[in-house]
Amino acid sequence: MDFSFAYLFNGFLAALSPLNILLAMVGCLFGTLVGVLPGIGPTSGIAILLPLTAQLGDPTGSIIMLAAIYYGAMYGGSTTAIMVNIPGEASSVCTAIDGFQLAKQGRGGPTLAICAISSCVAGTLGVIGLSFFAPPLANLALKFGPPEYFSLMFMALALIISLAGNALLKGLTAASFGLLISYIGQNPLTGTSRLTFGSLDLMGGIDFISIIIGLFAISEVFVNVEKNTRYMLENTKVDWKPKWAEVLYCRFAMIRSAVVGFFLGLLPGCAPAVTTFIAYDIEKRFSKHPEKFGHGAIDGVAAVEGANNATSSAGFVPLFAFGLPTGSAMAVLLGGFMMYGLTPGPMLFQENPDFVWAIIASMYIGNLMCLMLNLPLIGLWARIAIIPFPVLGPLILIFSVIGAYSVRFQLFDVWMTLVFGVIGYFMRKFRFPMAPLILAVVLAQMMETSLSQSLMLSDGSLNIFFSRPISAFFMVLGIAAIIRGLWRQYKCNSLEEACESDD
Amino acid sequence: MSTSLRTADIISGLFCFGFGGAMMSQALKIQNILDEPLHPGTLPLSLSIILMVLGVALAIRAWRYKGARVEVVWPELSGWINILVTIVALVFFYTTLPTLGLPVSGFIFTAGLIWFYDRRPHFAIPVGLGVSLLFYYVFIKVLQMPYPLGILN
């Protein structure tokens, strides 16, 4: 595919038709609502509306709406994470870490606004990348084999463990615990049953949404009920406008996270959960106030949301160029393409340029539309702060439970939220960091699969991770992060210090 | 109730050691039926051992700590009662979900817990009813998600 302004211009003409604008708006709004509800992510949202869009009979309008649901859900996903500490998806975990702290300080509304602005900026930068550089970038993504994937995951995990700062020992313990519980169930390649203690329920594994909801939302309620809290957020201001200085302060975080999210988002299987953790870590290293991370760093939240949306834009590159979905939501979207007899791949740009460029142009419009729709809604979300905890607490619990149940419709997942709620409560009391555990849970299966595939390629030799340049680069970075963390741990003598970076 | 972080770390370390040990006993039973280059038990076994080692390291580090006492802040008796009631309410909700269904079970759970926290039934019943109707119409009727309907089926 060669970029041409004529194609893009024609795309804008198609995308700006009243019907397509309406469909994009409906998609953005539905996506935002789907993102707000815990457990019902973009995959479910697209799957629910896919049969309905068939009634339209117009593939361009239908895909515009489905794509809008996808990136609209990325905007909405941060709301519950910030206001009530329920990250409905793994990609919102880092948002919850700092966003909820800011909400407690009465900055929930402005934080949501910064998230929306960052999402719009990074999402638009991602679409620019998609418009201009899709083919060479898609080819670059294909250079990633199993060893590169394994090294990338290893580096991500090492960086997050090192984020635990002086509490490295606890970070390592939490990560090991997370990896171990992720291996409960069936081996992803062979189907061998593992660590199930003979339980049929455990054979299906423990879904990571149940783990996240338990660790964050349920344990948050426990922490509040023990204190007879009247209001969950200490400061019940409903102001939502961010200060201009805050937006300016976050501008580089938005750009950096867009770049990180976009490039990592090109890789099939590299979910927003991974890119957001990496963007968060990078931002902490670049920030003028790294000490605020974990205690309410607005640039951290901006980086996470930016990376999330850039990743979702980047996911369209391999989808358009090779018909390769980077995640489950993209796979459902691919189903939408196929429903209309469109086969994504190099020929799509030549055979259906009007269709492709209309979708790309609609994404520019859709990102602005999401911002316009989300900013007025922030005032409404910010009012969560004035709901008394005796009412808000049970609502958090029931929405969390429903969110966990929605993933696989199994009661077992709901029970797991309670188990991890109790574990999360004690982790908070004993000052264990949660982020390494969450990332380990998200990465475990992908790491094992890519490790296994790499060893198949190398006949069991671990040298494969150091003999390929990209893989070696990530491995060296990961090892350096761990050595740095170990050194800090060695230099730290007090238990209190060893817990101060507990987020 | 008073616990120091040192004691908490020793308890956590011992828990990790025990949990790692239990997982190791399971990992040793995993068989490599398909003769994969990476034995399906390799990672679980390695991680079980790593968790046990880390647990011991955590406990020893805390044991050897001689600095100032750092307190773990536990709730008072009323706080423990609140947590216990919340857990019992959740267990009730989970248990009755298949038989009573999401709308009815959700109503009892939400209204009951709000009443317990707030002591004002005039607040609890409308909120519980609202949540119940929201679940019924939005999730079950409009989105057609397969939540249990129980007695409403």
Topology, number of strands of chain B: 2
The parts of chain A where pLDDT drops under 50 for at least 5 residues are 498-503
Oligomer: heterodimer
Strand content of chain A: under 5%
User: What's the story with the biggest beta sheet of chain A?
Assistant: 2 strands, antiparallel
Largest interface: A-B, 62 and 74 residues
End-to-end Cα distance of chain A = 45 Å
Q: Approximately what portion of the residues of chain B adopt beta-strand conformation? A: under 5%
Gyration radius of chain B, in Å: 24 Å
Query: Can you give the helix content of chain B as a percent range?
Result: over 70%
Describe the protein in words.
The complex is a heterodimer of chains A (503) and B (153). Chain A has one domain (5-499). Chain A is 73% helix and 1% strand. Chain A is built from 23 helices and two strands. Chain A has a two-stranded antiparallel sheet. In chain A, a hairpin with a 6-residue loop joins strand 1 and strand 2 (193-194). By secondary structure, chain B is mostly helical. Chain B folds into two domains: 3-72; 77-152, no CATH class. Chain B has helices at 5-27, 42-64, 77-100, 102-118, 121-142, and strands spanning 3-4, 71-72. The chains are: A mainly alpha (503), B mainly alpha (153). At the A-B interface, helix 8, helix 10, helix 19, helix 20 and helix 21 of A face helix 1, helix 2, helix 3, helix 4 and helix 5 of B.
